[in-house]
Design brief:
The chain is of the alpha+beta class and 450 residues long. The chain contains 14 helices and 13 strands. Strands 7, 8, 9, 10 and 13 form a five-stranded antiparallel sheet that branches. Strand 11 and strand 12 form a beta hairpin. Helix 2 packs antiparallel against helix 7 and helix 2 runs antiparallel to helix 14. The longest helix has 15 residues. The chain is globular. The chain starts with a strand and ends with a helix. It binds protoporphyrin IX containing FE (HEM).
Length: 450
């Protein structure tokens, strides 16, 4: 087994047992497909897992070589369908056992974002296996998709029940116009250098099970060890974006196009190019936005009141960096996450303010070892609540569960600006809590009871 010495005092990560999706960037640009499968017959399900293991295992062939990223994950009902023993099922995180739909109210998935309106089969007990295929080009996608199709051949007890294609524009921009996927933590032992020189790499146990996390302890891990080790929890959410409503909202509040761009940037914490407001607060700097060595190299400590980047901006809420430092403060490092989100649906053409009724948005993907203190904490305490920034009534202006009455404060001199009557710009179409096991664990799953 290849092991790489992490940081000087770091853990040894079993890199060739960990599925690529958690630790490594997806290709960019990418084209991809998510597939959901239902297991109706246990033996067929196990045979499927055996075959998927072959595709996921780089040692077994060239399918995942190069930039292609293929990840296999299971829901709780999926592990049940495979016959994982009850004692083992009970050892998974409680949130995973409950599933995302059961957590909806706490997560703010209510009203049009509530499970009753979710796209079938998302949130139902029919979703058992989730596959993510992300490739640099169509040729590679076609090749892997064919392998996945072949893996289901002559297994009538396995049904493909959902599919969603995704893609990235060459500019990296997503439906609201912003470049996404920039702010990511580095992970000790992954061999990938940090993009923010001011943030120490996270302990591997924050992202991969079986290693100490930031508390110095091993995170609770599913048993037996062969199943839990080198796995990670994955959150998968289909988020529809109301792009016309977002553009119309900004148009109605800005004096001109320039101010529209500025207000949009204030809501996100970055300009559309990806350039951070913390570094360039007054004008966009597309060269900075494009430069991976500089576009994440910043902190907020010199801007405690948010004159450069509002404390309520989406990216600052989601990762306040050093801005919460101080006595009794929350340890931001306990709430970091790997994001592997992608973009789906055609872009709304520039300048269009009318809703064309087309579905477009983000497939939000989280990877980490603590569903509750990472994903759920950030979603509920930082995005859907404003207590931590001293504005209890303010939710995230871009992705918070606003209902037309919310506001967003843009600190400025001489008087702050308050953007009122925020409507919802993001609607949850559904999602799942999954577990992406290590490769040995996949073999174990394929062979339970044999
Ligand atoms: C449709 C929904 C969403 C959109 C359009 C969106 C968009 C963005 C954009 C444009 C950025 C800045 C670029 C970057 O650093 O990658 C960002 C950063 C981020 N977002 Fe979101 N986001 C969405 C939902 C979420 C959710 C649900 C969460 C977590 C629960 C989240 C967590 C983060 C984090 C952690 C960062 C990085 C912050 C940093 O390290 O600077 N986002 N998002």
């Amino acid at each position: 087994m290849t092991t790489v010495d992490a940081a000087p005092a770091g853990a040894l990560l079993e890199l060739d047992d960990i599925q690529a999706g958690a630790l490594y960037e997806r290709p960019s640009p990418y084209v991809g497909t998510y597939v959901l499968l239902k297991i109706e017959d246990r033996a067929d399900g196990r045979e499927l897992v055996r075959r998927l293991h072959q595709i996921a295992n780089p040692a077994a062939g060239a399918e995942t070589a190069g930039d292609t990223s293929f990840t296999v994950a299971f829901t709780y009902p999926g592990l049940e369908a495979l016959g994982v023993p009850q004692a083992s099922l009970d050892s998974f995180a409680p949130e995973f056992q409950q599933g995302m739909a059961a957590r909806a109210e706490a997560l703010g998935d209510v009203g049009e974002s509530g499970p009753a309106s979710w796209e079938w089969p998302l949130g139902s007990t029919d979703v058992h296996v989730a596959l993510s295929i992300l490739c640099p080009g169509e040729a590679e996608r076609a090749q892997i998709a064919e392998r996945v199709r072949a893996a289901q051949a002559e297994l009538p007890g396995v049904k493909q029940i959902w599919r969603q294609d995704c893609y990235q524009l060459a500019t990296g921009r997503t439906s609201f116009g912003f470049k996404d996927g920039i702010g990511q933590p580095a992970v000790e032992g992954s061999g990938r250098p940090p993009t923010n020189p001011h943030e120490r790499p996270l302990k591997a146990g924050e992202i991969v099970l079986g290693y100490p996390d930031e508390t110095g302890e091993l995170p609770p891990m599913p048993t037996p060890e062969v199943l839990g080790r080198n796995g990670t929890y994955v959150v998968f959410r289909k988020l529809h974006t109301k792009v016309a409503a977002y553009r119309t909202y900004l148009r109605g509040r800005a004096k001109n196009r320039q101010e529209e761009d500025l207000l949009g940037a204030k809501m996100v914490g970055r300009w559309q190019s990806g350039a951070p407001l913390a570094v360039t607060p007054d004008v966009d700097d597309p060269a900075l936005g494009r430069d991976p060595r500089r576009n994440n190299a910043f902190l907020f400590g010199d801007d405690p009141r948010g004159f450069k980047c509002p404390v309520g901006a989406h990216a600052r809420r989601a990762n306040p960096r050093d801005a919460l430092d101080g006595e009794g403060s929350v340890d931001v490092r306990l709430h970091r996450m790997i994001r592997r989100g992608t973009s789906y649906g055609p872009m709304l053409p520039p300048g269009v303010l009318e809703d064309d009724g087309v579905d477009r948005g983000i497939i939000f993907v989280f990877a980490g070892t603590h569903l509750r203190r990472q994903f759920e904490f950030v979603k509920t305490q930082w995005l859907n609540d404003g207590i931590f920034i001293g504005a209890p009534l303010e939710k995230d202006p871009l992705v918070g569960g606003n209902d037309g009455t919310g506001s967003f404060t843009v600190p400025q001199r001489p008087i702050r600006r308050r953007m009122q009557d925020l409507p919802p710009f993001v609607v949850t179409r559904g999602g799942e809590y999954c577990f992406a096991p290590g490769l040995r664990a996949m073999r174990w799953l394929a062979e339970i009871g044999s």
